């Protein structure tokens, strides 16, 4: 079982990376992949969107070239990955991210089930932000969302904004 302290430590590790990517990033402003990508932009961070079906996405009238998979990231070994995909996709994505050298992952609410969460914790020990028991107002499959909890992690980004 993960605790608030475990998630806080994982969030700090996540935000210590010099590069970020968002798996499931989308041009559709109604989708969470778009909202989470935009959140990073609001923090002064330009993440790389991961989307195997589009060569670019548009967020706030700006186009961003996508990478099809974690292995296509230029700096995978120094990248933290936000995941906004269904659990079945997340399961394979975690394996691909680990194989590519990704160091930390943030599983957004709805992206995991118990098996996927356990896989994330095994593959990214101390560096997987996800669900845990006892989160006020949430169940294990909801967990922390970067839109709600990102600024409250105390993690800090490279420019100290968080």
Automatic annotation (TrEMBL):
It holds the Pfam family CoA_binding_2. InterPro entries: CoA-bd, NAD(P)-bd_dom_sf. It comes from the Eukaryota. Residues 20-123 form the CoA-binding domain. This is CoA-binding domain-containing protein. It comes from Neodothiora populina.
């Amino acid at each position: 079982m993960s605790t608030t302290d475990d998630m806080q430590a994982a969030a700090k590790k996540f935000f210590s990376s010099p590069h970020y990517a968002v798996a499931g990033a989308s041009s559709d402003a109604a989708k969470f992949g778009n909202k989470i990508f935009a959140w990073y932009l609001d923090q002064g961070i330009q993440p790389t969107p991961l989307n195997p079906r589009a060569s670019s996405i548009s967020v706030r009238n700006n186009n961003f070239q996508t990478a099809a998979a974690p292995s296509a990231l230029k700096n995978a070994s120094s990248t933290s990955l936000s995941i906004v995909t269904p659990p079945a996709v997340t399961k394979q994505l975690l394996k691909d991210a680990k194989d590519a050298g990704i160091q930390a992952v943030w599983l957004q609410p709805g992206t995991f089930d118990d098996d996927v969460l356990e896989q994330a914790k095994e593959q990214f020990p101390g560096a997987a932000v996800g669900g845990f028991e006892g989160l006020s107002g949430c169940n294990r499959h909801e967990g922390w969302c970067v839109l709600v909890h990102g600024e409250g992690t105390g993690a800090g980004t490279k420019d100290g904004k968080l």
